[in-house]
Amino acid sequence: MTSAVEQLHAVQVRIANAEREAERKPGAVTLVAVSKTFDAEHIRPVIEAGQRVFGENRVQEAQGKWPGLKAAFPDIELHLIGPLQSNKAKEAVALFDVIETIDREKIAAELAKEIAKQGRSLRLYVQVNTGSEPQKAGIEPREAVAFVQRCRDVHGLAIEGLMCIPPAEENPGPHFALLEKLAREAGVEKLSMGMSGDYETAVAFGATSVRVGSAIFGSR
Ligand SMILES: *Cc1c(COP(=O)(O)O)cnc(C)c1O
Question: Which residue of 86, 110, 147, 148 lies most exposed, with the fewest beta carbons within 10 A?
Fold first, then answer.
């Protein structure tokens, strides 16, 4: 079995190659290592190999493993990449450094309140449901630009980017292209897109970060 550290290195090489092929700057793309369902014991060697940016999709699960790891490695950057319930906003703001999944007014308001209360400076993304899938989180593409503006103007949230999860069965390219277009229209710079199966494609479409889980940690 290949270790997570070996697989991390393989993913890093493939990202670097994809950057070169797309004529992007070396290091233009941040690797977010998605560690959901894996415990601290599995994550630690990956941190020790130098990886510092991680993603988790559940607040409660992250609370069980990251406070200890963050105390041991203070320069860790933790991203929330799963849906956020407003009753978890307080915990999410306390633990995460980046929240990628703002997709409705109520969450924007709740986050703004908690960020002010806790005096934290988080980096924030709006999640867009590029495939308009009924079961999937994210704001509708046609509402995305206005929603980013409302996050800024009504809630005082500095949104820095957009995030999407394309429909599993579809060619992801058009979804990545749509996210890039919406980000330009909304005036935000960062694009969180691409997972284990399609991160090289996402790099070609301008991703500034890719969220890779199983290609590093193995299947869940
Ligand atoms: C689990 C997850 C990932 C990583 O998926 P892999 O296919 O394992 O790389 C990326 N983004 C989100 C939002 C996820 O929930």
Answer: 86
Q: Half-sphere exposure of 3 toward its Cβ, with a 13 Å CA cutoff?
A: 10
CB of 82 closer than 6 A to ligand 1? yes
CA of 56 to the centre of ligand 1 (A): 9
Instruction: Give the pLDDT score at 74.
Output: 97
Q: Is the CB of 175 under 6 A from ligand 1?
A: no
Whether residue 196 has its Cβ less than 6 Å from ligand 1: yes
Q: Are 76 and 62 in contact (CB under 8 A)?
A: no
**Low pLDDT (below 70) residues in the chain:** 1
| Cβ-based burial of 50 (10 A; exposed 0-12, middle 13-18, buried ≥19) | exposed
Nearest atom in ligand 1 to 196's CA: 9
For atom 12 of ligand 1, the residue with the nearest CA is 81
Nearest alpha carbon, ligand 1 atom 4: 213
pLDDT at residue 1 in the model: 62
Nearest to 189 by CA among 165, 208, 215: 208
Q: If you measure from the C-alpha of residue 128 to the centroid of ligand 1, how many angstroms do you get, rounded to a whole number?
A: 15
Residues 50, 68: Cα–Cα separation, whole Å: 17
Q: How far apart are CA 199 and CA 10, in angstroms?
A: 13
Contacts of 50 (CB under 8 A, 6+ apart): none
Are 144 and 172 spatial neighbours (Cβ–Cβ below 8 Å)?
A: no
